[in-house]
Amino acid sequence: MFDSLIGDRRPLAWVLEFWPVFATAFVSSLAATFLCERVAIRLGLLDRPDHRVKTHREPVAHLGGVAMLVGLTAGLLAGVYLFRRDRGFPREIQWQFMVHPVARGSEESRPRDVGGECPRRVGCYSLGSVLQGLLKETAMERREFVKRGVLGGTGIWLGANLTPAIAGSAGDLTAGDVHEYLRSLGREWIDPENTVDTFKSGRPETPVKGIAVGWLSYFDTLRQSVARGCNLFVTHEPTYYNHRDTDQSVFSFEVAARKRAFIEENGLTIIRCHDVWDRVPGIGIPDAWGRYLGWRKVVREQTFYRVYELPAVAAGELARQVAGKVASLGQTGVQLVGPADRVIRTVAIGTGAITSLRTMIGELKADIALCTDDGFTYWRDGAMAIDMGYPVIVVNHACSEEVGMVELANHLRGKYPAVPVHHIAQKCMFTTVFA
């Protein structure tokens, strides 16, 4: 079958003979995909996952079909040009089945089946007529048409699919590019003048050699990043022990001064991705946390909160299920405040330290709240939960956001495939000691 298409020539020679069609389709679709992606991002034309109907892992730029159409058109025009210039093709067209010389309206020229009737092949004659009109009587054997079609299609596919790799090449990527891209994901809610998602060290023009991602920029985490060849660290939480990293008094402590000196000596650029990643739908902190816990059906939500519907279960049993999930994150047990025997059908989660018990009870009407230790005050929230007979599960802040950081690292790998991206794993901040 293959020999019937390429004749007695070797496959390599067969491919190289028609490289202009491949090259034209490849280059045009590559350039069009590159431009369409950037136009879509700039205009906010993104298909964002919602973890309910749209379950893809990351936002996808629209306009890809436009880029493919450009590549298809360019490849077709290149093929037409070559057909018109090529003197080696026979002057009579013999395209069986798919393309047949019916453009001239000759009834005798139509293919016949065994019974003498013209077979019904949907689109057969119209396709032949269109192509013949384009070629204007330029003759071509069927196998020559197949050659150009295969090469042109291959060029279009490669051009569209290799664009992300070229766009994310390590030689051109800067820390500012990564920072601006992450900020663009939160364009709808980020106020550039009032956000903690800023540079904590380094400069935007720094070329990126490798990217490390971690929930907190612990001193040891930064050492691991440097050891892995990364000069850009993306952190979710502060670097210098205060929310905005602006409190200079912290450098009176020797550890803070040593950390800053290490960062500067190793040329490590640190950017924060907090305000963005707390709200990116589908793969951001709250949705990643809920998915990790195995919960799928969202029945109510607010900006930083999700309420999931569950099969009826006792609060104590649900607490055990959550404990089983966070065990791999280094937390050997969870805390349960309130009655263990209360039947639960809905559970509310928050985002990191944003786990207001009053919001979960009063506004979201959940049967149980899953809070973090940084978002739950025992003398205030715990006392109210006990008086109400309302169950609350408490986990470590780090555990609730670690899975979101895995998603962030995966997202950056997909965006910049030519750049090494490492997730520096972190676990529960404390160890439970039993008597």
Side by side, the strands of the main sheet go: 7-8-10-11-12-9
Order of helices and strands: HHHEEHHHHEEHEHEHEEHEEHEHEHE
| Category by helix and strand content | alpha/beta
Overall 3D shape? globular
* Secondary structure: helix percent: 40-55%
- What is the total tally of β strands? 13
| Assembly category | single chain
What is the fold's blueprint, element by element?
Blueprint (H helix, E strand, L loop, with lengths): L1 H5 L4 H6 L2 H25 L2 E2 L12 E2 L2 H22 L38 H12 L6 H26 L7 H11 L13 E3 L9 E4 L4 H9 L4 E4 L18 H12 L3 E4 L12 H8 L5 E5 L2 E10 H12 L8 E3 L5 E7 L7 H7 L4 E5 L5 H11 L3 E4 L1 H19 L5 E3 L12
Parallel strand pairs: 4-5, 4-13, 5-6, 10-11, 11-12
Antiparallel strand pairs: 1-2, 3-6, 7-8, 8-10, 9-12
